[in-house]
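Example record

One chain of 254 residues, shown exactly as stored in the release files.
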Amino acid sequence: MRTVYWETNSVKLIDQRKLPWEYKIESYSDYRDLAQAIADMVVRGAPAIGATAGFGMALAARQFASPTVVALQQELQRAADVLLSSRPTAVNLKWAVTQQLELALSPAWSDVTSLQQALLVNAQRIADEDVSINQRMGAHGATLVNDGDTIIHHCNTGSLATVDYGTALGVIRAAHEQGKKIHVLVDETRPRLQGARLTAWELDRIGVSYDLIADNAAGHFMRTGQVNLVLVGADRIAANGDVANKIGTYKLAV
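Predicted structure tokens for this chain:
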């Protein structure tokens, strides 16, 4: 289940605002509309946003009928500014847009078509690489999961937050695929309820046993010895190992 993908000269996104009640794919053929979709949280999660922005640059290159490489490069610089402003705090977005813009501004291009194709190829590489990284992360993390474990998971870190497979939820997915019998206590994750709306939906789709719990109930389950492992997302990881993440993470760490 890919959260973002390219199809017939357009970018497709799962509209996460409608989950879990409706599964809907939105289609974007204008990079400005795609930037607005990022701002409106049609897509969310750092890796997914990064891949979306990468495809956004490829989309911008194709929607302009620029006669020369120089004219197209100027258009792409404007498109980059629009995409970057859609979510200023998203590190992956800036990383993907910058990578695409550096590729576009290379002096190597002699024709518009080659530049357009190169941007699409690189956007697809960014997306595919994210899936590969997630799968390797899941495999490493699954070594920490024992058969019969109960795991608390906070926020949403699955396919919907990435291009596919997931990061912290990818660990649960990998353990499940290895045949380990696990149970997940899903924090509702206020205030946007990513756990209740998205993580529970994903676990249901892949067949993992879970219960949805109120955020404030996590301490009870931990105090009474019913939890073996806690998995959360990470908005930032510093070089010394410090982790920053959304509200609700700190009390789980304590």
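Notes: The chain is about 50% helix and 15% strand.
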